[in-house]
Each structure stands twice: as C-alpha cells, then as structure tokens.
Amino acid sequence: MIRKVCSDGVGYSVVDLTDVRHVFAAAVPRVSGDLVTQTWDALRTIESVMKEESTLGSIVHQVVFLADDSKLAECREVMREFYGPEFPATTYVPQKPCHGALVSIEALGVGRKKGDVTIERKSEQLVIASHNGVSWIHCAHVTPDPEVDGVYHQALNAFSKMRGILGSVGVDFAQVIRTWLYLGGIVEGEGDKQRYKELNRARADFYQNIRFLTNYLPVEKGAVYPASTGIGVDGHHLIMSCIAMKTDRRDIVAMPLENPRQTPAFGYGCQYGPKSPKFSRAMALSCGSYATIFISGTASITNSETRHIGDVEKQTEETLDNIAALVSEENLARHNLPRLGTTLDQLALVRVYIKNPEDYAKVKAICDRRLGEVPTIYAIADVCRPELLVEIEGVAFSHLSCDSGHC
C-alpha cells in the first residue's frame, strides 16, 4: 500500500488511495553554503520527487525547519520565488535540524492518479485540496498579534485567528482533525506558572463549547478532540497550524484513538496542570477499505507517568512501543474500526523531536531499526516535560484486512 524511497538528501512515501496519489517527502540539503543555497537545493530535491511521481505542482502543505529564526524572511522570499502562484500552506518552525543543516523541509503533494484533484490556493497560510467528495483544509503558520502578552492570551488570540481563517472558507473549527502547537520556552516558567500549562489552559477554554467531528463519529463518544502535537521551539514564539476536513459524504468515519498503555491526555490529574491537555492520542479517518491515522506527538509515558528518566534509548523504545500499540489491530477494533489496524512499517511520514543534540545518533539508530525506510525529519526541541528526551509523531495508513476469506 505504501511505497517508500530513501536516498541521499530525501526520503519519500507514495500512498495511492483509490484514485488519488499522496506523496510525503522529507528533504535535507545535499550541499553546504548559506541558507539560500541550502533551501534551493532542498526544494529542487522535492521538486524532482514530485515530478517523478507525477505530482508536480501538487504540494499543498509544507513545514520548513529553520536553524536560525532570524532568517525566516529570507527563507520566505526563496519560497515565493520558487513556488510562484503554486505556493503551499507553509509553516516555518524555529527548530534546528539534527543533521547540522540550516534548513529541512517536509512536504505533502496530492495529485491525480485517475481521479480529479482540485487545489485552491487561498494564501500562503491556507490551501484546500479536494478529491472524491472530501476537502482537506491546510491552515499554516498562525501566530498571535504582537501586542498580546502572556502565553494564555496569546494562545486564545492565535486560536481565534485560526478559527477566522477557516471560517473565511466556510469551515467550522469543529471540523479540525489535527493541530500543531509550537511554543518557545515550553517548560519555562511564566511568573508562577509554566508556559506549557498556560497553553493547555487556553486550549481547554477555547475548546470548551466545541463539539468536534460530531457528523463523522460512528458511535456516541464522550470527549472528542483533534490529534495534536505541542512541542518546543527556539525563542519564545507561539506558532500554530492545523488540518480540517469538510465533506457531505456519509461513509467517512472519524474516530479519536486513545492508547491502552496511556491515560488519555485530557484525563491527566491536576499535578500536570490546572487544565489537562485537550487532544486525542491519534485521529483515525476511514473511508471504505482505507484508513489514515494522524498520530499525535508521543513520548515515553505510560499511564500518565514519565518512564526511563535520563535514558534516551529506553525512552525512544517506549515511545515507539506506544505508537505500535496505538495503531494496532487490537486498538482499532477496540475503537469500532475492526480490521483497520496497522503496524510501524506502515508509517508514511515521521517527525522525531530530540531534546539534546548529542542524542541524535542513538535515537536515529533505534528509529532506523524499528521503522525502516520512512521519510523522517529529526529536529532539536524541548518536549512538554523537562525529563522527556524525545517525542515522535507521524501519519500511518491501513487497508482493510481480510478474515475467513471475506473482506
């Protein structure tokens, strides 16, 4: 179902779902030099992949990881020159690539295999890709207004701006399936509070009256929240992005997944903050015989407690164990999606956030062994607890398995 290619400077996955081709690519520069030189090289590498896979001009969403945030404007100008009118929704993340380059790029291309794909490029922040009666709305690089102070108020402001951007194309915030919340100084204090806890307080308050994805749930659910990653970045920035889904199809199912090895994040006790993190461990979207699973940022936590403090290798193994359990057949069946479970080798795209640069080789060796060839971004970032050394997120795909000769 997934074809993966990893070579010098680029890894990519090709996923053909019914009559539409999805290409996930992660590129690092193959040359030295300044930011402009490295960015052009990474972009040309991705361009050659998209051309080879017949998806040229189809990039709808990209994330650019920058070693030096002061170069953001320079990088953005390169992007504008390269893409012209085909600009994807782009988020610029101030996280240093682990391999020492000045930039790395993750991109999603959606192109025709046989069916029609329509791409509406509304702005550098908003792109809509529609096919098979479903629209995927990519909203990128939402930041709070500069005059707003304090993480709590900044987060409320950014969430409100995101809601406005989605609303401009007739999409309600309740249709959001996946968010990314990038927060500088994530485990630092802010007065007598912690910045990440203030972010969670704002998210809980903003989500309070939102009933997510009610039209797509196959069964009555209690708390339903999008999948999410909350991760540190350099400086004290707050940057958000999201994916939303809009469709009138009746056969689309959205199911938030929880992990049997972990307490739901929204069920954490008060020792982890005045308001718990409101996100699901993953969001599974099924259509017919296929499922796409958006895996939230996952760390070395079982129940609600951090495991293997001080040991990055054991934390990486535990994190991958958590992801394997999350996407397993047993867990999907538990969530009313029988025969749509999958395994680690069906991940199409992975991001690995590592707290300490010196741990990169150890973490990469474990990921290479357990994940095999998969497009992967490795970036330096603080995780949401001071003792956590690694966090991993990704996208997995599954195809309905057969039993007793029937599918």
TrEMBL record:
Location of the Chorismatase FkbO/Hyg5-like N-terminal domain: 121-243
GO terms for cellular component: cytosol
Keyword Mitochondrion in annotation: no
GO molecular function: deaminase activity; dioxygenase activity
Assigned keywords, A-Z: Dioxygenase, Oxidoreductase
Cited Pfam families: FkbO_Hyg5-like_N, Ribonuc_L-PSP
Keyword Oxidoreductase attributed: yes
Protein name, as recorded: Pteridine-dependent dioxygenase
